[in-house]
């Protein structure tokens, strides 16, 4: 039975990270989804009640407590199951994996900013240099993953891997023309593999 409510949109990669963790840890049935259609210019009243920042994901617990953002929610949910944790509890592994996850989130932050800049902002007010600067963040991050992290990512599907997988899925959704696979063949092969996981298949974004 569901005891928690997740404010949700099928295109949000931050929400997807939470759904993937729920799936990987066998907890999907514990969370009911509450759909929220929102943007910075068009906030959702239900979300605003729970998160003054107006962002999803936000997770309402059975006692009414609300958790946000996605990193806090992932940490909480990872402590609610008995299997191997997806966030290492301590030591070097914890800081390394969280740092890789943070870099994946930086890809998402830049990609979502670009999405809002190109989709929401009137065309005559668009700032191309600023969009290009966000795009460079994405390229630098992907180059770093390709150069330094393929073996680590392949070693297990945890907070780092699921965060990057959701980021790459989001790039495919919102920037299908980016063609990142050609520049980052190691990442492309890794992503082709992890995309087959039931947790990734069950959470494919729907535009
Ligand atoms: O910024 C807003 O007002 C509404 N935007 C959001 O709620 C986005 C949805 S992604 N969420 C975040 O930016 C969360 C970021 C936070 N640091 C976290 O949870 O980790 C929607 C993208 C799309 O549909 O294309």
3D structure, described in words:
The chain has ten helices and four strands. Strands 2-1-3-4 form a four-stranded mixed beta sheet. Helix 1 (13-24) packs parallel to helix 3 and helix 4 runs antiparallel to helix 5. The chain is 57% helix and 7% strand. The mean pLDDT is 97. By secondary structure, it is α+β, with helices and mostly antiparallel strands. It folds into two domains: 4-78, Glutaredoxin, CATH 3.40.30; 91-198, Up-down Bundle (Glutathione S-transferase Yfyf (Class Pi), Chain A, domain 2), CATH 1.20.1050. The protein is globular and about 45 Å long. The relative contact order is 0.14. The structure holds L-gamma-glutamyl-S-(2-carboxyethyl)-L-cysteinylglycine. Residues 9, 11-12, 14, 38-40, 54-57, 69-71, 112, 115, 174 line the site of L-gamma-glutamyl-S-(2-carboxyethyl)-L-cysteinylglycine.
């Amino acid at each position: 039975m569901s005891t928690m409510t997740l404010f949700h949109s099928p295109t949000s990669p931050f929400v997807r990270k939470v759904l993937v963790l729920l799936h990987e840890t066998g907890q999907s049935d514990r969370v009911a989804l509450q759909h929220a259609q929102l943007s910075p210019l068009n906030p959702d009243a239900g979300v605003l009640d729970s998160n003054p920042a107006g962002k999803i994901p936000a997770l309402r617990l059975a006692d009414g407590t609300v958790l946000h953002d996605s990193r806090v929610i992932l940490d909480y949910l990872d402590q609610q199951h008995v299997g191997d944790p997806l966030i290492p509890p301590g030591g070097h592994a914890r800081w390394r994996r969280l740092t890789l996850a943070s870099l994946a989130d930086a890809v998402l932050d830049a990609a979502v900013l670009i999405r809002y800049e190109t989709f929401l902002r009137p065309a005559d007010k668009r700032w191309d240099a600023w969009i290009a600067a966000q795009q460079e963040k994405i390229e630098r991050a992907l180059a770093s993953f390709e150069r330094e992290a393929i073996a680590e990512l392949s070693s297990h599907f945890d907070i780092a891997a699921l965060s990057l997988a959701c980021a790459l899925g989001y790039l495919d959704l919102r920037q299908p023309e980016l063609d990142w696979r050609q520049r980052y063949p190691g990442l492309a092969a890794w992503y082709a593999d992890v995309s087959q996981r039931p947790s990734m298949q069950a959470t494919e974004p729907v535009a």
